[in-house]
Amino acid sequence: MKLRVEKQEENILVLARDNFINPKVDGFTQYEVLGALIVGMGEMERLVNVLTTDPEEVKKAQEDLKKAEAMLRGEKVD
């Protein structure tokens, strides 16, 4: 029984490695699909943040950045 369990564990590891490493000519591995889903979810979150950010906040942040850059150059800032 112990030998059978070890053989099954070995088979699972080999299958997982093959699914992850070897490219498939007729489709995608489950890891590729999962990775694409995770990347897509992150991109959707980024787009939502961009679309829901108030334009006035963006302008204020840009002005603050310009002031900070001017201060670093040694210019007098209001």
H and E string = HHH
Low-confidence stretches: none
Major sheet, described briefly? none
The geometry reads as elongated
How many whole angstroms does the radius of gyration measure?
A: 26 Å
Quote the distance from N terminus to C terminus: 80 Å
**DSSP helix fraction:** over 70%
Number of strands: 0
Number of helices: 3
Q: Your description of this structure?
A:
The chain is mainly α and 78 residues long. The protein has a domain at 2-53. Helices cover 79% and strands 0% of the residues. It is built from three helices and no strands. It has helices at 2-21, 30-52, 55-73. It is elongated and about 80 Å long. The termini are far apart. The mean pLDDT is 81.
Show the helix and strand layout.
Layout: H1 2-21, H2 30-52, H3 55-73
List keywords for this structure.
78 residues; 0% strand; single chain; mainly alpha; 79% helix
Task: Summarize it.
The protein is mainly α and 78 residues long. It has three helices and no strands.
